[in-house]
């Protein structure tokens, strides 16, 4: 891998995003809009928003970044851009790292906006530091980016890329502990939830919501989410194809 090539790839992706206002709006505004709607869905019971708002602060960016990243990367391949790039002295690792860096910067802005809105605009009540909440939201967004880069290698059209969402995201959403405590689930489902990264993202958010200082469980959960993002990026580089079959 080359730092210069990685940075050049990231700069190219950011230039493309600059000319795609709809994608920018989807990535930056949709999580904020979803949080805003959620707050006023529970207008009569703000405590319910406090109970699930922190978890969804991590889930919404993950889903958004997954969708946008998978489609954007697939578009590069179907248009022939990826094949031309890889014909140059540009390795798969450089390409994936460049994409991760570019979308990671967008994810950072997205996480800052969503966290600021939740805490100071919508009155989300958390005991822990806002910086810890932001850290987990950012890790979740980066995980969504990594998953999007990975699954794009297995899709041959943008429609197929969208179809991966029910397969990759929805099971995690159901089993992450948002709807019911994981330890009350059927044992097989609990075992499955224990290996899904979104479960640890929700657990980390719950730790920030309940405790003023970082706990050992929080550190473990954050490391698992970050480690999964890194692992999926490595797998994405290994499975990246030059063109769509």
UniProtKB/TrEMBL annotation:
Membrane topology qualifier: Multi-pass membrane protein
Short name of any one Pfam family annotated for the protein: ABC2_membrane
InterPro entries: ABC-2_transporter_component, ABC2_TM, ABC2_TM_bact-type, ABC_2_transport
All residue ranges annotated as the ABC transmembrane type-2 domain in the record: 18-243
Top-level taxon of the source organism: Bacteria
Compartments it resides in: Cell membrane
Transmembrane segments: 24-42, 54-74, 95-119, 131-154, 161-180, 222-240
Keyword terms of this UniProt record: Antibiotic resistance, Cell membrane, Membrane, Transmembrane, Transmembrane helix, Transport
Family: Belongs to the ABC-2 integral membrane protein family.
Protein's UniProt name: Transport permease protein
